[in-house]
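Bench log, entry 3. Co-assembly request; chain sequences pasted below exactly as received.
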Amino acid sequence: MKRILIAGIGNVLLQDDGFGPCVVRMLEARYRFESNVEVADLGTPGLDLADYLIGQDCVILIDSVKSEQQPGTVLLYRLPEILQRQVELRIGPHAPALTETLLTLDLLGAAPAELLLVGVVGHSYEMGCNLSQSVQMSVDSAIAEILRELARLGVHFESKQYAAEPDLWWTKRPASMGAGATGE
Amino acid sequence: MTRRIKIDPITRIEGHLRVDVEVDNGRVSDAWVSSTMWRGMEKILQGRDAREAWLFAQRICGVCTTVHAIASVRAVEDALKLQIPANAQYIRNLILIHHALRDHVVHFYQLSALDWVDVLQIPRADPGRASSLAEGFSSWTRNSREEMKAAKDKATRIAESGQLGILTNGYWGHPAMHLRPEANLLLFSHYLQALEFQRKASQAVAVLGGKMPHIQNLTVGGVANAINLDSEAVLGMEGLESIQVLMSEVSNFVHGVYFPDACALAGYYPEWFGSGRGSDRYLAVPDLPRDPQASRYDLPGGYIRDFAADSASRSVRFMDGRFRESITEDVTHAYYRGDKALHPWKGETIPEYTDWHPDQKYTWVKAARYEGQPAEVGPLAQVLIGYMQGHALTRKWTDAALDRVSSIARHKIGIEQLRSTMGRHLARAIRAAVLADLAHEHWQMLVDNISRGDCSTHNSPSFPDGEIEGVGTHEAPRGALSHWVVIEKGKIKNYQAVVPSTWNASPRDKNGVRGPYEAALLGTEIADAEKPLEALRTIHSFDPCMACACHALDPSGKRIGTAGDL
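Structure output for the full assembly:
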């Protein structure tokens, strides 16, 4: 069976850069996958991304991207495009490492056979734990693109009857601490 | 003629660093180091539960997740004066060691080797001779002629195709690259092998810490791992054995490949022991505590005030109280408001952006100072301090390294010469060799302690009503890291992370004293202003990672070495 990785990339402390982690956590809360599919919030791994890509047949990455288009626009990129546009390409905050990771794997003959990057054009990258509104509204479109890709790859998945609460711990406002906070 | 060269960006991983050097008659006459983004962790953390701080801190930098997580829990524990169980110390130490080993191997092969190895010379190499060369350095099993031939074929295919891929940005054919073809091939073959071993170190961290890259097993007061030798569900004999297997593979690679390679590279480029010296002051924090009280450490820390002075005064032992009082951050040349150097507990992060101006403000990095002076941090600082203190493992591996290098270079290279661009690479390999030995020791201490029936991993924190302050330190792969926290009624009031790159990439302070990168660049020879490879070598020797000194938001172009007449 093909090994599939669905990975959210980005920094959850930098507003729209947290799009990737947010999308994969929503995806996990709503859908059930078979054991050959791994869903991961990888943060901003830089070149360490290689560790997670090795051994995967197909990879779907979700990240924020830099583009002239409207914030919230979802853009799709395939592996050859990313490799070709190596020097000039600046897809997002982590693009240098993404491109370099893929090129390093290419050199080793260990790059995944297929890769789809689902990118959203960000609006704001200031320090902060919430997505801006235009980007928040694109979460469902990104999930739809992921599901379309999985269907194309022939990967089985099903909706959870009762969607779980997604674990978006960083978006919670500082909790007011009552008496219970002095011990665990 | 004086030319100013701008090198931007200089890091090969996330985070962006810009270096401006003035070159006068082929040598660097002045340097300014700047990073393009700013930080402000306290804005995110203010008002949050102190027990959650580490989860957020772990997200400061995706490359150094575990590093910030551990410094953060230590800061809160320090504020609470809360000891953690011995098992928790050992489990944390094993995580720290494996993270560091991975990081050092990645730095040497993925991030620096290609500053020295000319891939386009490899097609001329004789695989048999490269194999003999490698076997002379180490008994590593993958130094055969076949391994070398496979690496040569790969490099040859790439060179002939003209599709250089990841190798596109190298300064191939630069006059400062002078390894013979077989040495280029040997190092390139290990560059290819390194990736496999990096992963094993991450896997060891994952067995203890849970799904990587963000560990989940920390908690203020210890670790969340449950220990039961007979259970497969929690950390038991099976998990401990799998860590041992991974640990042995990683340490074999460090001792059999990375350490000999670093010595060989240094022996082939001995002139780089004479360049990139930089600061006279070095700072390292002690790490790898051996007991719940952290009364003894396996990695030495300290401060060297003046390396040029006689040996007796060279090393000041790390003193906790003094460390707490001695650190300030100056923003005279950084894009923040304020005119006083502030202690991290009082630290502020109020942005005040101006254009890049070499005499005024030019970076988002604050100038970290120890007793008012800049200090270099990182493996070099740690090795020098350990050596001066007579730390046995540091002495053993430093002496071994210097012997190897001297024999390859055919002249004596001494401890003094470690204070250089090449010395930083060698010190990192020495530190890795020390850590690989210590991994086995801390694994054994964990197993022995559990075997004695101690399964405790966590002490519960209890927060007082008043205001408390704490500092958590960690000697991270890039050097001394400290997280500073002020807590009131269990909630965070202030939080500052003084990261290693804040020390090394620091700008000038109010007295005009340059930071360590800036100082190290002075006097560097630049053969070709269009290809400032020599400046890159010196900056890379520090292992810059700007992601947590500052955040990367808008990476600028990949232009390296835009030269302009001044």
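The longest strand of chain B covers residues 467-476. Residues 2-565 of chain B form a domain with the Cytochrome-c3 Hydrogenase; chain B fold (CATH 1.10.645.10).
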